[in-house]
Write the structure tokens for this entry.
Amino acid sequence: MKTLPSVDVVIVGGGWTGLLMAKELGSRTTLSVVVLERGGPRNADDYGDDMDELDYAIRFRMMQDASQETVTLRHTASQRALPLRQHASFFPGAGVGGAGEHWNGEFPRILPDCFALLSNTIEKYGAERLPEDHSVQDWGVTYDELEPHYMRVETLLGISGKAGNIRGKQMEGGNIFEGWRSAEYPNPPVKIPYFSALFRDAAKALGYHPYPIPAATISQVYTNPDGIARPGCTYCGFCERFGCMIGAKAQPTNTLLPVIQKRKNVSLRTGATVRRIVHDTAQSGKRARGVSYIDASGQEIFQPAEVVFLASWTLNNTRLLLLSQIGEPYDPASGKGTVGRNLTHQVYYPAATAFFDKPLNRFMGSGAAGVRVADFDGDLFDHRGLPFLRGGILLALSLGFRPIANFGVVPQSVKPKWGSEWKKAALHYYDRTGNIVFHGEHLAYKGNFMDLDPVYKDHLGDPLLRFTLDWRENERKMAEFATAKAVEIARQMGAKEVTPFPGLRSYDATRSQSTHIQGGTIMGSSPDRSVVNPYSQHWQVSNLFVLGGSAFPQNASANPTPTILALTSRTADAVVNRYLKNPSALA
Amino acid sequence: MRRRQFLTLSAASLGGVLVYSLDREAFRLSAQAYKSIRIPLRFFSQAEALIVAAAASCIFPSDEAGPGAREAGVTVYIDRQLAGPWGRDRHRYTQEPFDENAPKEFGYQGQATPRQIYHQGLKELKGFDRLGPDEQARKLKQIEATVFFSLLRQNTIEGMFCDPTHGGNIDLLGWQLIGFPGPRMSNFDDVDKHFGEAFRPKPASLHQVTGRKVRASEDQE
């Protein structure tokens, strides 16, 4: 193994969190910072000709290569796990920018009460209302503490939206149920395409409170505080699974990378696959010494560093801690151990598929152009007498319909799945179909967790990460409830036929259900039940920080990126203002 | 080396077609000059290609609702996909053990690659292209639940609606059928207009829009 000269900071992963930390440390300090990204290089202008549905959206050009590494899945601990042999349920990114390049750019905050979910639920409903095998926890950080960081990252990305609550004052047209905001969004909302406008009007007519989705696909030309300028969205409809051809969608490569590239103290190495965090094993003063990785030529390298940031997405964060034997792996039988616990995947499904008689022109849109209803989110409605806790949002997204993914959906009244009758119906309904989608909270359970698979390996010979994951009655009942609401709205929209979601059964890895997977290195206020403290700092290894959705103790209904970036911003402040002056435990 | 095999497409009904050659050069063939087009095959034998063409045509027929898989070049598309990395599972996790009987929530867990699935599936459809329409429909109905059929159905949809650089959607036929314009640089002025009315800009391929050659996945390693 080749040992390189030591650096101050090494960051594992060149996605949203890794590059945000690199930008913060690189521009606010003189520390030497190295970012290690296992995928290839990328630049903001790489996407001028990527609008090919087949290669990008169907063959997953921007995703991790599943032939090299995937995860295995079983529903319960008594089953044998099988590898997810191709991407379907969620889409891990690869290359500089990671999944932040191919996201849709919806940018909602998490509801304030989620951050103290355990305390709030017990206080309101009593501990006996929580499912028997739940593993719900408080985050150890409050919404009020995060608010300035939400604002900061929204300003950095130029989020377009309409506030519904500025310092407690309800604002017409925004989400009146959202947590308080210190200011309006940096840009006005994006345009609302026809399908989403139908949803908005129907929801309003039913007495709900629709609002435009906060969007990182920005509505107009914008220059952020770093001097980075981006154009407004043109609604081409190629966001999800694509990089933005003009850079209107905020991506790590067009928002953070240009700043980093100007900093001489930051370097970004691509093709660098980190395999272990190297650390002292002594019980007294556990310390990370750096990381070992395989470079693009296959050589094994040791990169010593004073501080290590693990920023390699939810699954790889968990896997690298397990492979490096840092912390105690979670054991569901005894409840001991913390690494891998509280695996959650947002409850995300097409609640109502609506068929209209008028064409919708659905090829136009953007990943975050649309309308949401939050009337059934969190605990905004009384759950006494309901067979479940918590809730989620319903939305009508106009993300740009592309034909391979969407052709062939027909109402239930059409029975054939191929042939002339099917073709005729499918042609007719192609541009007359829309989904009302539900994003719901996923509670954490003792039996849903991650560990290392005993059978299947990655291309380097390391064990794959294993999911033990299934839905419980709380999610199934919540889904039933939300489906009925979605059908009601679809009918009000004027749909001629509506196909309701058939219901959640076992966790189905073939259904695309958002890349919002959380947990594994969760945050909390006690080292017995969490991996990192509320500053994302490892409880036992104080010069190791873990960034990303792996920190969420359970899944909120909101898309995770805003909160992930806000937490990273908060950690950057704590590192710059406190840790560097006195490198020790921050909490 | 195998003998060069061709698929013959009829150009007569189309009034000329836009075809992408194997090296991604676009050229237009007019019906006046050619009664038919001979497309070199990369993966299928001629006999296999005829079966695929017939089966894809059952799935997405040419009928009174418009042209179908035959005119759109679906067989050409599938042939190129199978010849490329997708056909040999270049990006699928293929470490053993396999479990052919896994519950469907785990996705396809078999060992066979798309190439092998097609070879086997086509063997069982021997003579299919010479059957009458009712018999063809009956035969496909029998294999509806197989992995082969679901691949064939999915690939037929892909071949109807992919960018024409991949060999299917010849002359943007698929996109014209559904009013999809292909990649457009901007819908800014239209996205919040045309409510309730069909807005149908003239379709254009990615190559036509950008003026650049498209890097197709079937040509990668």
Remarks:
- The radius of gyration of chain A is 23 Å.
